[in-house]
């Protein structure tokens, strides 16, 4: 799934190539997307290239080639996380001693394990304090699931807002492009898009106001993968 800014940039590049035969300059991209600096454009271009939508050609000016388009722009369907958002009530009252999912025919109670950062760092995930009810169809196959309350706006272009409750499937592995709960250096928990490149791991925000953070692979532990989202109005 592309973020809104990534999609806006890809659409702008496509229109300019169709009109002029060449891609726009970085200054034109920055102005079109109303970004403060070209570094934000560099990050968006890199993300589009990593996801296989564009290709940069060496030794040529404005050397950007569109390889494929997302389904929303007439391309073939692509894989990736698309939030399954449901409107929910406030989490149910705490049920002491019940830290395991409790299922009924149509819903499941998951432990709400605390808050997760989608922005500035916060402390690692707290202990189970209460439960939240989610539709059973939101859970991703077998395995343990839990819920976390999002704090921050760094994943807003992926449809994840401050105050949302995310549903996480426990796993220690992830594929490039997955949105994961990552434990950084054993003390900071964060919700970011996971990208591995050799021995390095990039934790990407879905908001151009935030920098991509790069770590050695032994500094990041995947704690789970995003499978659903609950929004309370």
Attribute tags:
233 residues; alpha+beta; eleven-stranded mixed beta sheet; two-stranded antiparallel ribbon; 3 helices; 13 strands
Concise overview:
It is built from three helices and 13 strands; from the N terminus they run H-H-H-E-E-E-E-E-E-E-E-E-E-E-E-E. The protein has 233 residues and is of the alpha+beta class.
Protein described:
- By secondary structure, this protein is of the alpha+beta class.
- It has three helices and 13 strands; from the N terminus they run H-H-H-E-E-E-E-E-E-E-E-E-E-E-E-E.
- The protein has helices at 4-20, 26-33, 38-50; strands at residues 54-56, 64-66, 85-87, 102-103, 107-117, 130-135, 145-151, 165-169, 179-184, 188-197, 200-204, 213-216, 220-231.
- The strands form two sheets. Strands 3, 4, 5, 6, 7, 8, 9, 10, 11, 12 and 13 form an eleven-stranded mixed sheet that branches. It has a two-stranded antiparallel sheet with strand order 1-2.
- Strand 11 and strand 12 (213-216) form a beta hairpin.
- The longest helix is centred in the first third of the chain and has 17 residues, at 4-20.
- Residues 86-99 have low confidence and may be disordered.
